[in-house]
Amino acid sequence: MKTRFLIVGLGSMGKRRIRNLFANNEKDIVGYNPTPERRKEAEEKYGIKTVDDYKKVSPNDFDALIISSPPDTHGDYIRYAISRKKHFFVEHPTSEDGYKEIFENKDSGIVMAPSCTFRFYRPIKMIKKILGEGKIGKILAFQYNMGQYLPDWHPWEDYREVYFSKKETGACREMLPFELIWLNWIIGSNPSDVSGIIGKVSDLDMDADDIILASLKYENGILGNVLVDVISRKPARTLRVLGTEGVLDWERFDHQIKVYDTDSKSTSVIPVPKGNPEKGYVNEEEMYNDEIKAFLDAVHGRAEYPFSFEENTKNLRTLFALEKAFKTGQYQKL
């Protein structure tokens, strides 16, 4: 059974979601964006119909909404979908706007799916399996850095005009809880305490902060340090996990996972197959395709969607607690 889609937002993520639907053999798509240039691009590149007002699309003419607009607009579209009893998938947020309505309608029968892209990323699934098998013993601590120079995120447009350069929807505010989605998953726990530093250290022309350093204590006793930045001129996603019996190291752009074993004093190098990024993008398309497949499976009753707004709320509140900790100079409990 095919599903009819309305995609809100035809920027970088909206266009990606069109490709993801195509990859899952879903072609019945209408796109909305307020700017004529982006509507024209989507029409010419993907052959979809677009509208200049999403309310012009009758609720009888679509089954599911994909919300790929800037984070500060998500709430209105969430409420729109819920009020019309439409399934929806929404990109990662920077606030809880719309969550009240989500929780009030959790038994409505509609699928409400928050993005959790990196849980579908092959190396992260491999790391989850390695840690779950106890290859480095009991996990004690980890450190992680995600960094990429902000103007390189969307080199085809002026970064100063994009939502991720604004204070409330800044890239670092967006990416810390985004990274926690998968970090908490592989660790098998949620933070209980947080402190850290948030700031702007570069000369990037924007209001947003460009670096976050978070110190986390988890409910299961694991300690973690997370550095998120938009100043690194060399892109990086670098993870080190310390265990009682070894160490796991991963740098995504090396396409390998290294596992040090204490007993043998040797390091196993596990190759990670390369994915296929769209031209001009860093991230591979496969994980996004799989994420939308999971949404489709939930819509059609084939499987439950593997991530919830309850979980996402915890990640957002970790961000909010970190912001309070930085302002007060005191550790915050969650």
Question: How would you describe this structure in keywords?
Answer:
334 residues; alpha/beta; Rossmann fold; Dihydrodipicolinate Reductase, domain 2; 2 domains; 30% helix; globular
Note down, in words, how this protein is organized.
This protein has 8 helices and 15 strands. The protein is of the alpha/beta class and 334 residues long. It folds into 2 domains: 5-114, 3-Layer(aba) Sandwich (Rossmann fold); 118-280 and 313-333, Dihydrodipicolinate Reductase, domain 2 (2-Layer Sandwich). Strands 14-13-12-11-7-10-9-8-15 form a 9-stranded mixed sheet, covered by helices on one side. A hairpin with a 4-residue loop joins strand 13 (256-261) and strand 14. It is globular.
Q: Kindly name the structural category.
A: alpha/beta
The total count of strands amounts to: 15
- End-to-end CA span: 43 Å
CATH class of the largest domain reads: Alpha Beta
State the domain count.
2
Order of helices and strands: EHEHEEHEHEHEHEEEEEEEHHE
What CATH architecture label of the largest domain applies? 2-Layer Sandwich
| Count of separate DSSP helical elements | 8
Mean of the pLDDT scores? Answer: 96
Largest sheet data: 9 strands, mixed
Strand content: 15-25%
CATH superfamily of the largest domain: Dihydrodipicolinate Reductase, domain 2
* CATH topology title of the largest domain: Dihydrodipicolinate Reductase, domain 2
**Helical amount:** 25-40%
Question: How do the strands of the widest beta sheet line up side by side?
Answer: 14-13-12-11-7-10-9-8-15
